[in-house]
Amino acid sequence: MESINEEDKIIVTLSPQEFWWLAKFFGPGVIFGVEDPTEGLSEEEIKKAEAAAIGKLTEANVIHAGKDGTLLMDDLLGAIIYSCVHSNDVMVLTFTQSERRFYHFLPDWQLELVKIKDEYHLTCFKNREVLVDYILTELLSLKDTPIVSKDSFSLPSKDLELATFLFQSGKTEKAVEELSRSCIGQLPDLRIFLEGYVNPRKNVDIQMIYNKEGKKLLHQCHYSIMEIGPLLYWLTHSESIGDEPLPVTHIKSVNPKEVRNKLMIMIGYPNSL
Fold first, then answer.
1. Are residues 13 and 113 in the same domain?
2. CA-based, 20 to 30 A from 192: which of 147, 205, 212, 234?
3. pTM (predicted TM-score)
């Protein structure tokens, strides 16, 4: 285990065995972004792994034996682990199939959980503004204001998928025709849009899971951020209204400031959800 204290955040690095053993203090619970390292191991192997984890955590001085012999955990580390196990809301950013970052939220806590190589990195941020600025600048690299257009349109998600397939199959005119038929709103040059949509400069998938602990009805939202040529787009994935709702994609040109505002509202700052 390693710990780094910075001005606006604290970074803790744990092995899978260390993290899993610490999380058991606060179980049962659900931790998005963490795999059970004991799966497939024999009882003897599990005991050896736990003993090794306890030894390393003791050396790091974050756990120690109490007066009655029970193991006690450092208060700050305990709060960080608890916030992962029993977070109210979770945001998942997917950059590629192999890179996913998980953000766990409680009213006064905001944590990033990401697995890098064979270690879990947990970052506790000072506040949500610091977290959002970190996402925008360090992860998304949205430092410059791109050109913003009036593009704002919606279409059935299946039609966007079909147009994408047609375009990738070399049937460009058919793909453009499909989009023209399906889209409603202020449209861009659909040929240029499709070219950028198929090969975006940036593509980040955002999944927001509210009320993970189940105190009320669980609610999920799904968005994407795509950089297509010089333009930045915010995609909202939702469903149409009616007796038989269908998946719909809403696409709007935005600038980094608008992305920041959307993220701040999404994670409850101000707490509007």
1. yes
2. 205
3. 0.89
